[in-house]
Amino acid sequence: MVVIVIVSNTARLVTGSLVRKPDVASFFAGGAATSEQQGLTLQRCGDVPIVLLVGDRLVT
């Protein structure tokens, strides 16, 4: 699964950037609405295949 940034509040993750962590594929497969992985919060956005990633660890 490829994860691409749609929008960000930091210039270090611009629109179109690839996100290589966390494991979003396993998050979707697990079926949970919310998950904590590697210091990040993952939140499903309804039934669409979009995940909200929240946390400082995305920017390294």
Question: How is this structure best described in words?
Answer:
By secondary structure, the protein is α+β, with helices and mostly antiparallel strands. The protein has one domain. Helix content is 12%, strand content 28%. It has one helix at residues 24-30, and strands spanning 34-37, 40-45, 48-54. The chain has a 3-stranded antiparallel β-sheet with strand order 1-2-3, covered by helices on one side. The mean pLDDT is 83.
Amount of beta strand: 25-35%
| Order of strands, widest sheet | 1-2-3
Mean pLDDT: 83
Q: Kindly give the count of domains.
A: 1
User: How many separate helices?
Assistant: 1
Helix share bin: 10-25%
For the sheet with most strands, the description reads: 3 strands, antiparallel
User: What pattern of helices and strands is seen along the backbone?
Assistant: HEEE
Shape: globular
Extract low-pLDDT stretches: none
Rg, Å, rounded: 11 Å
